[in-house]
Amino acid sequence: MTEAFRRLLRTPQGALSIALLILLAAVCVAGPALAPYDPEQIDFLGRFSPPGALHWLGADQLGRDVLSRLLVGARSTVPLALLATLLGTLGGTVIGTVSAYLGGRWDEAIMRTIDAVMAVPGLLLALLLVSTLGNGSFNAAIAIAVAFAPGMARVTRSVALTVRNQDYVKAAIARGEGGGWIVFREMLPNVVAPVVIETTIRVAFAVMLFATLSFLGLGAQPPASEWGLMVSEARRYLHQAPWIIIAPSVAIGLTAIAFNLLGDGLRDALNPRDER
Amino acid sequence: MNPVLSVSGYTLDYVTSGGTHRALDDVSLAIAPGEVLGLVGESGSGKSSLVWSIMRHLPRNARELQGAIHLGDTDLRRATPKALLGIRGRRIGMVFQDPSTSLNPTLTLGRQLTEVLVRHRGFSKAAAWQEGIELLRRVELHQPEVLMRRYPHEVSGGEKQRVVIATAFGCRPELILFDEPTTALDVITGARILDLFRRLRAETGVAALYISHDLGLVSRIADRVAVMRRGKLVEEAAASTIFRAPAHEDTRRLVDAVPRPERRLVFDEPSGPVLLGARDIAVQYGRKTLFRPAPPPATRNVSLDVREGEILGVVGESGSGKSSIARALTGLAEFRGGIRLGKRPIAGVAQMDAAYRRAVQIVFQHPDTSLNPRQRVGEILGRPLRMFGGDAREIPRLLEQVRLPASYAGRWPHQLSGGEKQRVAIARAFAAKPALVICDEITAALDVSVQASIIDLLLALRAEHGTAYLFITHDLNLIRQIAHRIAVMRRGELVDLLAVDALQGESVHPYTRELIAASPTPVG
């Protein structure tokens, strides 16, 4: 694994993604300490201040410092997006592997159910769930996880099907291993590598989906400085003060790009054939 | 007479992150017009590197240090990429090991055959189609008009290989490279392909380089044989003499490794009671659905029994149901019929308890897929040990039994060679202290010399533990060396079950006789 990490750093996209992610993690940890102002401090005289010495990224419609809001807001955006992806991946991976292991009619039943769920667009499904569970960041994360799980299950199942036919799985069945051992000890470790790659790419989707839900008013609630919410609130002043919307949009974009690059880098670095 | 192909003093390195690796070291050989040169060596000896050097299709990290390769008067190393396009396929034909991957699955056979003819012989499409039919007829394919319109998945492996051969001969090349063309085929099909090769060669007088790891096979079809080891040519001799008088020690090792039915390796006769009896085993994959009827059963009413300490050979072509028997006996496939372990009847997979699964172990064909790549050797062996009443302290002893150092417990499967992986798989089977080990083509994916050492190991383990083997193979010569009795399967049915001595006798099924005839015994 350390060897794979070293190889990841050697690729340009891998190194860039790690650099961006370290920056992101630092902001998540130290954001409030770094913020020059209180992100919720309203200053009517400073409304719509353009970027300058006082406010590096300008101030918004209530005179709040955009940079401070961005730094503090990372906390309520990135960890929840990660959580949503992890939950969705975990659920989907286990469903997909179990489905491939059981095979036959069980497999049919599980996969057709998943097809039915996938027929509903992810955003719509997330909207439906949030409106049932109630607004809020955590519920939005759960909704995103549920929206992701079916796709992950399909990806995992296709990999798990080939793993299922490997002789070491047959050997485990022949010596009388139970389903739990075969799924979790023999199959899952061999399914994980492609899933990890898929996961990192999905984090980017989760960040954007999470921002979208907040933008629609279903995720984080004002006055939180969640990035998607910031974009949502700023859109009315797009012509008047574009910096209010540009800063959080760029932050969302960079986060998405960082995880996408990580996925690309991992695909090359995790190829088990070269793991010598 | 000028040679068709001459390689002189050719040296090739591969540059890897671990340093440079010498693939070919000062290799010189020549093939005269109409001559077949056999090139023999283990995997990794550089045979394939030589082929790719001749075809001018080397990977990027290859460094050619010195030497020359001439096709007739053409210096291949100096040939431009454009010139090479006119040489590959036109002047050098090639037949690969696995016909199922050397044909494009999305194009019809006719399209692939005619493309070469249009390109290299300047035929019009219609003329090429006619010529293609003619070529298929010459490789003894029935109904060539119909075959031309088929896709690769619609024909058998043997038919595919004939199409590849037809394509290679189609442009009347000066030289054809054969890279283990019968290895991926079953015995009888392979024997027929060899007959075809001999006939076409006599008709066309083409020169050929025939590559194989099986010295026995090469000695029967080549005029001269060159033996390669670690990138060097260690011996070159006439095919008729190399078996009788191998000069080099490596050649002798290869000669010794070739299975010969007359050289028995097992001398005792098992007299114990029946260990495992199978009655009327029928295996059926897939069931009838709304849209399609059930496929035909993989095996029908197969009955056989294995005595304690006995080696029972099961032979037959691919698809004859050999592996399905193994799958039924190990509970990997649902079956109808009855099994008895000693006195205990087993009616189905559900009744195979821990005692049964411990007594009957299986080793699979492909060393690459039979070990979990995410588990170290120690974990792979530790699990069955714990399940069947041993403990992890026995791992070094197990490894020693299969002649691997105890330090291998910390290794990952990808750090082992094919033969070493198969030894670990054998150790895993013996961790359960089994009474019967089912060996499903366990040496088919290995070199002949590695195969010999694995067989040696199995016999040593049997001598120590008194284990019985159900040895599934397509190699009749090999099984005649070790088995007490041989079961012959064809299309899911048992056609013969007889003592190994009776194999040459009168009361043998015609199919068994055909199998014996198709298994080449080495000359000399």
Automatic annotation (TrEMBL), chain A:
Membrane-spanning intervals of the chain: 80-102, 203-221, 241-263
PROSITE patterns per record: ABC_TM1
Gene Ontology process terms (BP): transmembrane transport
Organism of origin: Limobrevibacterium gyesilva
Residues covered by the ABC transmembrane type-1 domain: 74-263
Family that this chain belongs to: Belongs to the binding-protein-dependent transport system permease family.
Gene3D superfamilies reported in the protein's UniProt record: MetI-like
Localization: Cell membrane
InterPro entries the UniProt entry points to: BP-dependent_transpt_permease, MetI-like, MetI-like_sf, OppC_N
UniProt keyword list: Cell membrane, Membrane, Transmembrane, Transmembrane helix, Transport
SUPFAM superfamilies: MetI-like
Bilayer topology term: Multi-pass membrane protein
Name of the protein: ABC transporter permease
GO CC list: plasma membrane
UniProtKB/TrEMBL annotation, chain B:
Top-level taxon of origin: Bacteria
Matches recorded under CDD domains: ABC_NikE_OppD_transporters (cd03257)
Domain spans labelled ABC transporter: 9-255, 276-516
Pfam families on file: ABC_tran
Single Gene Ontology BP annotation: transmembrane transport
UniProt keywords, alphabetically: ATP-binding, Nucleotide-binding, Transport
SUPFAM superfamilies given in the database record: P-loop containing nucleoside triphosphate hydrolases
Recorded GO MF terms: ATP binding; ATP hydrolysis activity
Similarity section: Belongs to the ABC transporter superfamily.
The name this protein goes by in its record: ABC transporter ATP-binding protein
